[in-house]
Specification:
Elements: H1 10-23, H2 29-38, H3 43-52, H4 60-67, H5 72-78, H6 82-85, H7 88-107, H8 109-112, H9 115-128, H10 137-143, H11 151-177, H12 181-190, H13 197-204, H14 208-220, H15 232-248, H16 250-256, H17 258-277
Length: about 290
């Protein structure tokens, strides 16, 4: 393995270009079509099945642990019942069909078949060579899946591996910071980079009272001010969470090297901007409002 000193936060910047590319799946109308054909009628069930299928026919407890910020009550409404509708293998096949249709629609056939897409797939897969399995259940489960042959699907697969590798480490950082699931969501939204409260409550299964209770707890710790904005201490804590996550996630980017990380970030941003411009994400997804 080669290791190369990276500029500060280079790995995080690369992750920020790659992570949302995976997430185009969850907002795609193609998800409704492909999963509807399997017998799914509830979008929460579709999303939960799509992300957890690599773990096998798991129940709510496993998903609560690995997803961290979902309400167990919501999960128990759908898991393990979703596996009676379709097996994990069938869900994974439908997921890949969804991704194929979504990326062709958002990026266009020319970009999907471009040398740049093949280059991005090669770079991202090379970075995953240095990912580690221990204490990383979502990454490790996805690492057992075969790499798709087509470059745009291989890039999405590699982006998923890098996303879940960082995500698994992020949970350790949240635990270390003493942030429970709702506090983690509230404090992330307060940075201006997390999902809006409407989307958090609608997708994670929490009630407004849960959100308000977390706000009060964070205010009691001096992390939020009276208007719900991060205090100096709150900003410092969120910065430390991200820096802790960076430390746990540095291996794949060091392995890829500074030039490779810079190029993958450039390519990833280009694909992401194209996808976003084609309507990949809801306009009100991010923000404090």
């Amino acid at each position: 393995m080669t290791t190369t000193a990276l500029p500060p936060r280079a790995g995080r910047r690369c992750h920020n270009a790659i992570n949302p590319f995976h997430s185009t799946l969850y907002f795609s109308p193609d998800l409704d079509r492909e999963f509807g054909a399997l017998g799914f009628t509830d979008r929460s069930a579709m999303r939960l099945a799509a992300r957890s299928a690599a773990l096998g026919a798991v129940g709510a407890g496993t998903v609560a642990a690995t997803f961290y910020n979902y309400n167990h009550e919501l999960l128990a409404q759908h898991l393990p019942a979703v596996w009676e509708t379709a097996s994990p293998a069938a869900v994974l096949d439908a997921r890949l069909r969804t991704v194929d249709a979504t990326l062709r629609r958002l990026l266009g056939e020319e970009t999907v078949a471009s040398p740049e897409m093949a280059e991005a797939a090669e770079l991202a897969l090379r970075a995953t060579e240095a990912c580690t399995r221990h204490a990383r259940p979502l990454y490790s489960a996805h690492a057992d899946l075969p790499v798709p042959e087509e470059p745009h699907l291989a890039y999405w697969h590699a982006a998923t591996l890098l996303r879940e590798h960082r995500g698994d480490g992020h949970l350790a950082a949240l635990l270390s910071a003493g942030l429970d699931p709702v506090e983690a969501l509230v404090s992330h939204t307060a940075t201006g980079k997390g999902m809006s409260p409407r989307w958090v409550l609608g997708s994670r299964g929490w009630r407004r009272a849960d959100w308000d209770g977390a706000v009060e707890r964070l205010r009691g710790r001096g992390l939020l001010d009276a208007e719900g904005a991060l205090t100096e201490s709150g900003t410092a804590l969120r910065d430390e969470v991200e820096e802790h996550t960076d430390r746990l996630d540095r291996a794949p980017y060091e392995h890829l090297g500074a030039a490779g990380v810079e190029r993958l970030t450039e390519l990833g941003r280009g694909f992401l901007l194209t996808a976003a411009g084609a309507g990949a994400f809801p306009a009100d997804l991010i923000g404090r409002g």
